[in-house]
Amino acid sequence: MATPDGRPFVVLGVSGGIAAYKAVELCRRLVDAGCHVAPVLTEHATRFVGELTFSALASEPAQTELYDAAAVIPHTRLGQSADLVIVAPATAHLLARYAAGMADDLLTATLLATRAPVLVAPAMHTEMWEQPSVVDNLALLRRRGVEIVEPAVGRLAGGDEGAGRLADPATIAEAALDLLGRRPADLAGRRVVISAGGTREPIDPVRFLTNRSSGKQGHALAAAAADRGASVVLVTTSALPAHAGVRTISVETAAQMHEAMTEAAQDADVVIMAAAVADFRPRDPESTKVKRELGAPEIILEPTPDILVDLVERRPAGQVVVGFAAETDHVLEHAAAKLERKGCDLLVVNDVSAPLVGFDHDTNAVHILSQDGTTVSVDLASKRAVADRILDRVMDHLNPSAEKDSR
Ligand code: CTP
Q1: pTM, whole model, 2 decimals?
Q2: Residue 401 has what pLDDT?
Q3: Is 211 a catalytic residue?
């Protein structure tokens, strides 16, 4: 329920972990983005950050008590008023209480009393993050429709390193604004063409050569671009459902993708080659099934066309072209060489040997290299959040003067 002046009502729950201090920045970002923020701290959270800090920055005083003489039933007021409930950081204990449907403090009672979307950003030590009980609680919450902003890998309390560090406040704020439908329609009127998935190159009618790409990052990019107002064409080998409003062209081979992309890119403002295109294909695919009795066949390969290079060569003035690279070693070095070789404006590279990154995961972590020499790194986040960060860079290239002004 928005406030009378139209601002979305956001309950910001903070549970007791060292990362609670980062919720202060999240609070400020949400207020700056035009949200009415009502902070709710667990008792343990108050050991890490002061109520006063939140009260000073938020839209109303921070609350901690289920039983408050001044506001008789705060849990239902907050839960019913909320357009979104965020918990950041969410400790293992908070996740367990929420998953079990407990309501023994104001934050869990609010979570139980709301019908609004809920976004949780877990933060804890790696050992806790990897505990089967925590993994199960999170999977249960995800199945119930709770949005999760995955933690990043990095420095933890006490100097330890590993997975479990609270995601960047900026990433959490972006996910929150997405759920509130408050992303700017900054791609309105723009045509965006995206390729996704791994191509399949036939050996015979039943067998093919392919790779491990799932198409999830390309589909997330299509969804994000459509939500930001673009008219989107998605050329994909993947059977993943397409986001409403995205025009999907299904292809299988590099040759089919080449044709569809060349056609669609002609009048596009932005072209993103997120697909993993086979570099080689069988030169003479068999028209009938190759039989086992004939022994191991010799398959002669030939190179496929480099679609990205071809799109760069043909591109109309002003079109922004984005390439992808999946690397396993010397990631930034290989990426810089690839950016140069392919000639695209931006190159998004991920280290597919890192945990939870790349193929088939719902999360990704990337570096976005630009021809202007700058590199933006995006920590582990959902593929949707990564998509938005990539589109933010695309926006900088579509409006280079705006970028200069904002520096
Ligand atoms: N690409 C393409 N056509 C190809 C191969 C790749 O358009 N035949 C595009 C991919 O969609 C991606 C970028 O080129 O955007 C980089 O792909 P990648 O396979 O990493 O590059 P390669 O040039 O094949 O280099 P490598 O030797 O690392 O495989």
Answers
A1: 0.70
A2: 53
A3: yes
